[in-house]
Structure formats: C-alpha cells, structure tokens
Amino acid sequence: MEKALTFENVNYFYQTKDDEIFALDNVSFDIEKEQFVSLVGPSGCGKTTILSLTSSLLVPSSGKIYLDGKEKIDSQKIGYMFQRDHLFEWRTVWKNITLGLEIRKSEDKEKKLAKAEELLKKYDLYSFKDQKPRSLSGGMRQRVALIRTLTLEPQLLLLDEPFSALDYQTRLEVCDDVYQIIKSEKKTALQVTHDISEALSMSDKIIVLSHRPATVKDEIYPNLIAKTPIKKREDKNFSSLFNKIWSELTNEKSEKFLKST
Fold first, then answer.
1. Under DSSP, is residue 98 helix (H, G, I), strand (E, B) or coil?
2. What does pTM read for this prediction?
C-alpha cells in the first residue's frame, strides 16, 4: 500500500521558562492511504504534539516527516476535526460549510461548492442547508463540521478528540457516522483519543505511545470484522484487545511511578 504519512526518527524538544522539555523520542511510524489510525497513550505524552508536527504548526527538532512522500508539507492538504465543532451560530449550515472556501479563495471554487452540496445530500443534511446550527443535534453538528473539512478535499484528516464533548449515546452514534463518512470518501485519518474502545472500534491500526518523552511502544491491528464501530464492539476479540492496550498503558503508569521514587 502507498504511504500517506511517515514519521522517521522524529525528536521534539520545547523550551519552558525554567527548563527544556523532551516531548518525543525517536518516533517512527507509517500511515497508509485510506487507513484510519489512532494514537493512544498516557495523558501529556505527546499525542497532540504529533498532530501539530504533522500539520506543520510545529517543526521537528530532528528527524523527518513526509506527507504523500514529500518532506515539504502543504498544510492546505490537511484537514482538522476538533473537540468542538466550531460552527458559527450566526451563519447558516451552508455558510459554515463554505467558510473555508471563502477564506482560501480556491481556484476551483465552483467544483468544491458542488462537492459540498453533494456531501450534504449524501449524508442527509441538505434539508438543513439554510438553517442555523442551533437547530441541529450534536451528532448533526459534527457531521456538518466534517463536511466543512471534506469540502476542501484534504489528503489527510487529523482528529483531535473529536467526540469528547458529546454524551455517551450521541458519541457512539457520531463515531459510526464519522467513520462511515471517512471510509466512504476514502480519506486517510489520524486520530488522538484517550478512549481505548473508541480507538479499537474505529481504527485499522492503533499506535500505543509511552509516557513522555513519547516513543512508539506498540502497533496494534484490531482486524475486527464488523463494518461499523458499534458492531465492532460486539466482536469476540474486542475485550482481549482492550485489555492488552489497557495493560500497556497501566504498565506505563507503574514504570513512571517507579522511576520517580
């Protein structure tokens, strides 16, 4: 398979007022095109730092990062989904979705507007096109936020805890929606999550990170047969995979405690 993203021996340091923090230690991994990958690890280990490096908001202290085989990353080829949908309440759904096109002044704007309209119809949101976000459910808002990102036709989607602001039931439903949209549109995705079940149910691959400075401790391929995240949670291998990841993260806490004493 063709590689969409490669981290090659990436190190990252940052300076605080009192000290230099070693955040990433020789981090290497690959993401193949159309793969959905999740990063899990202890709080503060550097998961969001990896997203920031991927999007060129940060620059590695050493090592290489390649997007679609190119070291010079074009940030316009990367789309973001955040914890909050960041929809503007005074703009209609359509005006929210096309906001990025207004800002970027895209040369193929008409083509992308047609794509936005197609996505709204495909994912049952077209009838809400002229309504304000307050009339939408939490799940619908996240679908709108994702369509806004997809309208710009990114090569890689970065998802930073995109469901954490939702209640549990809505979260399960939205995971299904977002997963199926990403797979249907044949997009590559890198997700940061603290939720092991969420990672297992959505991911083709899970990268387990150590505590800071983060290294890649393990790569797990769930290989769950069901087609949707909710159904994958019913797989007979789900609990054993959950326990494996939980054990690795729990051991991380124990090792960190022992080093500090």
1. coil
2. 0.90
Q: How many CB atoms lie within 10 A of CB 59?
A: 9
Q: N- to C-terminal Cα distance for the chain?
A: 45
By DSSP bridging, strand 20-32 and strand 188-192 are: unpaired
List the domains of the chain with CATH numbers: 3-260 (3.40.50.300)
pLDDT attached to residue 256:
53
Largest pairwise CA distance in the chain = 62
CB 50 within 8 A of CB 213: no
CB atoms within 10 A of CB 153: 16
Q: Which of 178, 214, 221 is nearest to 48 (CA)?
A: 214
Distance CA 98, CA 147 (A): 9
Residues 254 and 224: their CA atoms lie apart, in Å, by 30
Residue 39 · residue 47 · CB < 8 Å:
yes
Q: Decide: residue 70, CB within 10 A, 0-12 exposed, 13-18 middle, 19+ buried.
A: exposed
Let me know how many helices (H) and strands (E) the chain has, helices first.
Answer: 9, 9
Instruction: Tell me the mean pLDDT in the region 189-214.
Output: 95
The predicted pLDDT at position 260 comes to 47
**Alpha-carbon span 12 to 139, nearest angstrom:** 36
Decide: 185 and 150 in contact? Cβ < 8 Å.
yes
Per-residue pLDDT tens digits for 43-53: 888 899 999 99
pLDDT tens-digit map of 138-176: 888 888 999 999 988 899 999 998 888 788 888 898 899
Residue with tokens 């949908």: 85
